[in-house]
Write a structure and sequence with these properties.
alpha/beta, Rossmann fold, 6 helices, binds S-adenosylmethionine
Length: 206
């Protein structure tokens, strides 16, 4: 690998390896979690796009033995701990009921499409994944719940913000330090899911 290759091992990759995480992306979640208290002991967490499993392992540690983490990915992913279950599935085909009867405290999506290097197409595919993650989050989150979704900058993030508005108390975008400087990815962070009654009332808003 040449020295100009942006994917050459950097400090986050080296740290992830040393700390036993499957991917450097764990430090994106860690930074957002530290800033926004996303994950709490006893939480039930849904991790969409969980392969190879660094967010799974981090979330499993944070929620502890009383918590539960379910990971979903196209790729089969080993369950990182006793409080983790993984499902190999395409989120577009996923039946929310198949994840069990209980609602979630947190829905995370680090899903990314296979990129083709065409910025518009890649951003559109990323937006479709983020919107699907939101659709699942709105079905599955408890009132007060938290939602995080990766999206590539393009047209999609403004639309995603519009779709989220009214359903959560606080919404913002973040670019954690571990996101590579040249990357177009950002994370939507939506906190304090409003209760169903509030959300129903807001459907006709705008
Ligand atoms: C950047 S990786 C996630 C890394 C993971 N958060 C970690 O820390 O180990 C993005 C993942 O999204 C998954 N993905 C993309 N499209 C998907 C879909 N339609 N359904 C489920 N997973 C999908 C990919 O298979 C890939 O594993």
């Amino acid at each position: 690998m040449g020295r100009s290759n942006p994917y050459t091992a950097d400090r986050f990759s080296r740290r992830a390896k040393a700390e036993g995480y499957a991917a450097r992306s764990v430090y994106k979640l860690q930074e957002m979690d530290r800033r926004h208290s996303l994950l709490r002991p006893g939480d039930r967490v849904l991790d969409l796009g969980c392969h190879p499993g660094s967010w799974l392992k981090y979330a499993a540690d944070r929620v502890g033995r009383r918590g539960r983490v379910i990971g979903v990915d196209l790729e089969p992913t080993p369950a990182a701990a006793a409080n983790v279950r993984t499902v190999a599935a395409d989120v577009f085909a996923l039946e929310p009921e198949s994840l069990g009867p209980d609602e979630f405290d947190v829905v995370l999506s680090d899903m990314a499409p296979s990129t083709i290097g065409h910025a518009f197409t890649d951003a559109a595919r990323s937006a479709a994944l983020a919107e699907r993650a939101l659709e699942l989050a709105l079905r599955l989150l408890k009132p007060g719940g938290r939602f995080v979704a990766k999206i590539f900058l393009g047209e999609g993030e403004a639309r995603l913000r519009d779709l989220v508005r009214g359903h959560f108390g606080r919404v913002k975008f973040a670019k954690p330090t571990a996101v590579r400087r040249r990357s177009r990815e950002v994370y939507l962070i939506a906190l304090d899911r409003r209760g169903r009654e509030g959300a129903e009332g807001e459907k006709g808003e705008k």
